[in-house]
């Protein structure tokens, strides 16, 4: 457990020393959200109708950005082999990577959610639900994406392949997340949708690191 | 039969050193696989041609048109078997992936690698025929109906598997990664299916009447089952032929490598 904590701390320290990566993801999120009004016109009602799905889609795309380098640098300089030999298990290494990815990419997106929500004319009552839904959905994507990054490690065109593998599997998170935000915007209860999202996250929490660990152990 | 292995030449595939004699392991030997599949393949192909030769004309010309949908119902005889193959094929892929991960059968690796393009083709044909059928019946090429959406996701999974397996210079690494991906997909498919069903009932309740509800008359059911069997045989023959070609390709590459090494040696 201490070793796992040290690994997580190392990942976070690395991310803090290169804050541009996190900022780039946030900027990408806001930019993609800002593209939607240009596509469908500035009518507030149309924007509000589209806002839940647009937020989810932008957030998932932004969270995908840093995934293709998740294991790359460590694999190149041999750190990954050392981590796998360290005795904490390949699945635990993958879990630490996923948690770090969420803290570094998913969490900053939550801070930017009100900005993107305001640009998309999302009702202010729905902002807390939007932040909760984005938090859970990006957590789910971090786990899935870690498995995807482990699978495409060393592949040709891995960066292109990764979204192709991960995005179809992330469809349930988009469905439940957008439904939750929509319900909150309509003055309904968002809780059941968020609970379903939480269930997805809870199912992925043990399974995705196991799959990622199995992929990392392939020599 | 056991002594015949040596006649097929040096095997380029790594064989498990102490492969158990019984059960499926007997077929893990590439030499024996080539010999056996070489005997089976012509019969399988002939059976596929024969059954499709009966089933397709039966369905396309001699079966009665539907009282509501008229002649367009005949797309069913291609569309439904393709949907069965798309899903059944994925179950087969998951099974093959388990075999490849647990027992490290090189043949299971190759079969999975050769299965995914054929599965993707079946899924694409299912989507294309469904789209062609949807235009005259529903008035549109595409609706976000729950079933259509899940088949579309299945299509992406097939393509992702086919692309991932081929993305590595080390074919064995590619096979392992593909096997893990297929298992992730197999766990995820029911979740996707559930969420899409649920999303669809939320957004557009039962706007599209489906064929499944009233049950099929035997005049349509029997040709459909015949076509289903025929396409399944053709699918199996295609995968078998592709796997044979892949085994032989590997063998040729190994022989060329050996020849090159001999030429280099003084």
From TrEMBL, chain A:
Family, as annotated: Belongs to the CcmB/CycW/HelB family.
Annotated keywords: Cell inner membrane, Cell membrane, Cytochrome c-type biogenesis, Membrane, Transmembrane, Transmembrane helix, Transport
Protein's organism: Belnapia mucosa
Keyword Coiled coil listed: no
Keyword Plastid: no
Task performed by this protein: Required for the export of heme to the periplasm for the biogenesis of c-type cytochromes.
NCBIfam families from the UniProt entry: ccmB (TIGR01190)
Protein name, per record: Heme exporter protein B
Bilayer disposition of the protein: Multi-pass membrane protein
Transmembrane regions listed in the UniProt entry: 20-40, 46-71, 129-153, 160-181, 193-216
Location(s) in or outside the cell: Cell inner membrane
Origin: domain of life: Bacteria
Pfam families reported for this sequence: CcmB (PF03379)
């Amino acid at each position: 457990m201490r070793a796992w904590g040290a690994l997580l701390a190392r990942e976070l320290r690395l991310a803090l020393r290169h804050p541009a990566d996190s900022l780039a993801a946030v900027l990408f999120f806001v930019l993609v959200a800002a593209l939607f009004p240009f596509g469908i016109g500035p009518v507030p009602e149309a924007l509000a109708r589209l806002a839940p799905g647009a937020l989810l889609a932008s957030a998932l795309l932004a969270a995908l950005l840093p995934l293709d380098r998740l294991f790359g640098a460590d694999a190149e300089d041999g750190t990954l082999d050392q981590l796998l030999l360290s005795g904490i298990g390949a699945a635990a290494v993958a879990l630490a990577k996923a948690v770090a990815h969420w803290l570094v990419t998913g969490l900053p997106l939550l801070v930017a959610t009100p900005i993107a929500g305001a640009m998309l004319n999302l009702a202010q009552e729905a902002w807390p639900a939007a932040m909760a839904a984005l938090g859970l959905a990006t957590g789910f994507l971090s786990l899935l994406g870690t498995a995807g990054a482990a699978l495409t490690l060393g592949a040709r065109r891995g960066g292109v392949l990764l979204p192709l593998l991960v995005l179809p599997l992330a469809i349930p998170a988009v469905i439940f997340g957008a439904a939750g935000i929509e319900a909150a915007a309509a003055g309904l209860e968002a809780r059941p949708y968020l609970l379903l999202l939480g269930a997805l996250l809870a199912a992925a929490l043990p399974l995705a690191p196991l799959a990622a660990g199995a992929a990392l152990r392939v020599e | 039969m056991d002594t015949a292995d040596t006649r097929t030449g040096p095997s380029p595939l790594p064989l498990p050193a102490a492969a158990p004699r019984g059960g499926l392991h007997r077929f893990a030997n590439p030499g024996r696989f080539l010999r056996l599949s070489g005997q089976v393949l012509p019969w399988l192909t002939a059976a596929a041609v024969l059954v499709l030769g009966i089933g397709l004309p039966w369905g396309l010309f001699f079966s009665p048109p539907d009282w509501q949908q008229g002649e367009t119902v005949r797309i069913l005889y291609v569309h439904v078997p393709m949907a069965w193959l798309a899903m059944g094929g994925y179950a087969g892929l998951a099974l093959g992936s388990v075999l490849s991960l647990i027992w490290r059968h090189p043949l299971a690796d190759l079969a999975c690698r050769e299965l995914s393009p054929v599965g993707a083709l079946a899924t694409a044909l299912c989507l294309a025929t469904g789209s062609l059928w949807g235009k005259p019946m529903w008035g549109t090429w595409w609706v976000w109906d729950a079933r259509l959406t899940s088949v579309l996701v299945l299509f992406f999974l097939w393509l992702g598997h086919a692309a991932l397996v081929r993305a590595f210079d080390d074919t064995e690494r590619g096979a392992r990664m593909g096997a893990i991906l297929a298992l992730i997909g197999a766990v995820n498919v029911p979740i996707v299916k559930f969420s899409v069903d649920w999303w669809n009932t939320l957004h557009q309740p039962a706007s599209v009447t489906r064929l499944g509800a009233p049950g099929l008359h035997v005049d349509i059911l029997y040709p459909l089952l015949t076509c289903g069997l025929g396409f399944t045989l053709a699918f199996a023959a295609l995968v078998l032929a592709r796997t044979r070609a892949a085994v032989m390709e590997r063998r040729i590459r190994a022989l060329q490598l050996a020849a090159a090494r001999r030429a280099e040696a003084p």
